[in-house]
Request: fold
Amino acid sequence: MATFGNLSDRLAETFKNLRTKGKLSPADVDGTVREIRRALLDADVALEVVKEFTGKVRERALGDEVNRALNPAQQVVQIVNEELVAILGGQQRRLEFAKKPPTVIMLAGLQGAGKTTLAGKLAKWLAKENHTPLLVAADLQRPNAVNQLQVVGGQAGVAVYAPEPGNGVGNPVKVAKDSLKFAVDKQYDTVVIDTAGRLGVDAEMMKQAADIRKATNPDEVLFVIDAMIGQDAVATARAFQEGVDFTGVVLTKLDGDARGGAALSVASVTGRPIIFASTGETLDDFEPFHPDRMASRILDLGDILSLIEQA
Amino acid sequence: MADRTPWSLSGALRGMFAKRTIDDDTWDDLESALIRADFGPTVTEEVVDDLRAKVARYSTTDPRDLQRMLREVMEERLAKYDPTLKLTERPAVVLVVGVNGVGKTTTIGKFARFLKTFDRTVVVGAADTFRAAAVEQLATWADRAGVDIVRPQHEGQDPASVAFQTIEQAKARGTEIVIIDTAGRLQTKGGLMDELGKIRRVIEKQAPVAEVLLVLDATTGQNGLAQADAFIQHAGVTGLVITKLDGSAKAGFVLAVQEKTGIPIKLIGQGEGINDLTGFTPHVFAQNLVG
Ligand SMILES: Nc1nc2c(ncn2[C@@H]2O[C@H](COP(=O)(O)OP(=O)(O)OP(=O)(O)O)[C@@H](O)[C@H]2O)c(=O)[nH]1
Ligand SMILES: Nc1nc2c(ncn2[C@@H]2O[C@H](COP(=O)(O)OP(=O)(O)OP(=O)(O)O)[C@@H](O)[C@H]2O)c(=O)[nH]1
Ligand SMILES: [Mg+2]
Ligand SMILES: [Mg+2]
Reply:
């Protein structure tokens, strides 16, 4: 928050003292780690992840690992950045395709996270990559979710399998299952299944998602999560991991100014890679996830990294 | 409503409150629990310091006293604002705004139904002309609530003109309450935020705006404060609605939002059903939080 200045400013202040000293003392490190902790919490990184992270940074900063080319302040920044990128997955991971088509991609997540929009984005991108995607309307609960997917499918110029009207009518597990046969018959090579939003605490809806998964045996189950989410990211990610399990994560609404601490929380708690970033409401606002960019975003590291050069 | 596992600070603090005496761990536990409930580092620090001072002043060592004080502090801080909806104008125009996917359209459906049960006549205006099937979604809710709807006359119609036509119809028919749905927009999008100001100005040519409700999603973290700031600036928010409180998120950030902006929480959404909406009662909110 503005009242405390951004992390860069605060760390710059802490680093002023560090720069003149030769080696880091525990007190120096503690002061710096406190600032980082606060910044991570302001960025909505989950508390347990913050604790683990700051513990690691502290340990490394006090360890023997000394880079002679860097002064102490630069060393801390470098350690912080490396640890962040490591949790976020280091390298990009690409979507897995089935050896024998169709490839099945199931989407799951909380209400309003951006699943249906993502379905359209994925379909459009897949079509551009010379795939023949089929969108499947398996959210039969949210009012007019089926219409929404049809509109989005139209915008993407892809086919939509929507045998049921929705709004409480139809069985989503059956629709998902039948869509595979439909895809094989009509030779669609990728199937993207949109599902209803559900809460982590909703056991019945979680079971439905698990049933859809069982019935379709997806190559990828993507957990779609809003970058604005707070501390609940951990409970929710765990609930979806236990309830449905997922193979990858998509972070949405990154076009806003949320720091996106959820990225760190989810990646750290579930060990699943973040594959895509969703960055807007139109179907082209979508890109592969870049762990290094996310690291600087969460901790405001863009500015801090430049301190390395100045220092 | 969801089959829920209730989460409360007291749940998280069970170990702490079950202890015989207050010790250093107690304060760490309290701090952790407040952070996990999304109060944010600043409010958390304030609350912990405040309670530390109180515990010292009353020289108590009983964790149950601390629990009671925590509940009181929360309730007191939450209750500083007046949560009553001001719907006395005729027509009373309510504009509903917020970022994408927080629950605006759903809240309008529930709210329309709520007003209907008090025999108010209601019309909703589908001024989200952008999002795929947003008009149909609102129409489904209007139908469920048994209220009228004004739709755009052609695709991509200017949202302000849909709002204008809705109020025009309400005045012609003597409808008492008008609720306008708007497209979700992130607070960082200047052009879309300006559009809200325009919608408001166009409405005001016809009738004063009775309430501008900003919908905030309980799962949101500290970004909720930035959302509130921007929407207040561009749309003149008069009340907050907190949705999705049926999940495991506690929405602690709303305390800071209320205090920083002085704008009261007025409605609470707790589910996807048409009846899952209530007024805001600080006592109940604090009780749910602290146990
Ligand atoms: N700004 C922005 N808005 C997005 C993004 N992704 C989705 N949205 C918007 O978020 C809102 C919800 O998106 P949906 O795709 O309907 O979300 P959902 O997860 O399918 O929602 P439910 O089906 O209700 O659970 C819509 O207004 C979308 O336009 C994004 O990356 N950026
Ligand atoms: N569990 C739960 N879900 C809710 C609640 N309120 C809304 N939802 C769900 O959240 C999702 C988004 O709701 P909408 O009403 O479409 O949200 P919106 O703000 O109008 O979204 P946009 O118009 O796309 O910005 C839907 O799946 C709703 O059913 C609530 O209180 N609890
Ligand atoms: Mg959807
Ligand atoms: Mg809406």
Summary: The two ends of chain A are 26 Å apart (CA to CA).
